[in-house]
Amino acid sequence: MIPAQAAGAQVTYEITASDASPNNNNNATSALTYSYVAGNYIAYDNGAIDFVNVISPASATGRGCAVRFTLDGQTDIAYALIRNYTDINRPNMDMQFHIWADDGTGLPGADLITPFDVTPEANLVETSPMTRIDLRPYANELSGICGDVFMGFMAPYGDVWVTQTTPAGGASNGQRTYLTDGTQWGLDIADDFHFRLVTTDSEPLPQAGFSAMDTGDNGIVDFTDASDVGATAWTWNFGDGTGSSTMQNPSYQYTSSGSYNVCLTTTFNGCSDIICQTVQVVLSNTEDIEDAYRVEVYPNPFSDRTLIEVTSTGNLNNLQARLFNIVGQEINCNMKPVLNGIEIHRGNLNPGTYIYELTTKDGIIAKGKLMVR
């Protein structure tokens, strides 16, 4: 048993077999060694070599190539493998190795590392081996990566030959290999190039989160970031069609009462997560919806108990109240009907702003704010 190795470690081993006889006979494969690169392998082709292809500075369409890799969760890229080919008529020049980020449109964009030259390992004895590219020296740039990245090379010095499966028959369904003329990238839907990435095991993506607090000051809501540690950028959409912010903990003033779908997109080292919550905004302490009812709340704010008093020309026997926090979650609290309304005891309510809703047989008759000290 070979002990577990860190991703990117190159392991070479041989096999020794011993029997159970008193002579302890054994046989070792000392003349034959094996090797592998430790880590999590990501590949999309089926490994079958149908054709070889040339990437060349003289090509009108194939001066560079890349395969798109989708990283689930956050992971570190430790190693790359490119299957080159050679024979007496197809020599190789060095290739300029790249790892590109997604440009936002599904094509290779900015370099994640400084490109460097790699010599293909193919030779006349082993004509189509994997060229091994150790990326552990680039750990600072290639740690905590998520989403789509593109691995491949440019051919500025001369012809570089690679193997491919044609027609595309791997898991990619022909949607992973890209070619460039040096200016624009395009999808090669017919072929699967034999490229691999080796990574660490992926970690769950950091999660975005936030809380909201109505200040009670004419529609101003304070938003507090509650995302996982490590966030580097925040983008808020306050849900009213106009308001946005890139502050970590912004305040925003709404101009009318209502329910707003507020979204926070949080960025972690290039990875992002989004969370949306409904925020209830009530500009006044009481908003009468039915003209036949008049509602007053006192004291408000309160620290022990408060009364939601309802005056009506109709029947209040079916009067009921519900309480919500500012993100629309219903809150259980100690309420009891009284002769002229609903009495609310603070109990375990935390300090903050809450939204009450009163209903009768006529439906919702009023909404308003309660402030708990």
Description of the molecule:
With 373 residues, the chain is mainly beta. The chain folds into four domains: 1-38, no CATH class; 39-199, Sandwich (Jelly Rolls); 210-281, Immunoglobulin-like, CATH 2.60.40; 286-372, Immunoglobulins (Immunoglobulin-like). It has no helices and 33 strands. It has strands at 10-13, 16-18, 26-28, 34-37, 40-42, 51-55, 64-75, 77-83, 95-102, 108-111, 116-118, 130-134, 145-154, 160-165, 177-180, 185-187, 192-193, 195-199, 210-214, 220-225, 233-237, 244-245, 251-253, 258-268, 271-281, 286-288, 293-298, 305-312, 320-325, 334-338, 341-345, 352-360, 363-372. Strands 7, 9, 10, 11, 13, 15 and 16 form a seven-stranded antiparallel β-sheet that branches. A four-stranded antiparallel β-sheet has the order 5-18-8-12, with no helix packed on it.
Structural class: mainly beta
Percentage of residues assigned to helices: under 10%
Might you state the CATH topology name of the largest domain?
Jelly Rolls
> How many helical stretches?
0
Domain tally: 4
CATH architecture of the largest domain: Sandwich
What general outline do the C-alpha atoms trace?
Answer: elongated
Rounded radius of gyration (Å):
32 Å
- Strand % is over 45%
Unreliable stretches, pLDDT < 50, 5 or more residues?
A: none
Give the number of DSSP strands: 33
Mean pLDDT: 89
N- and C-termini, Cα separation: 64 Å
Under CATH at level 1, the class of the largest domain stands as Mainly Beta
Main β-sheet, in a few words?
Answer: 7 strands, antiparallel
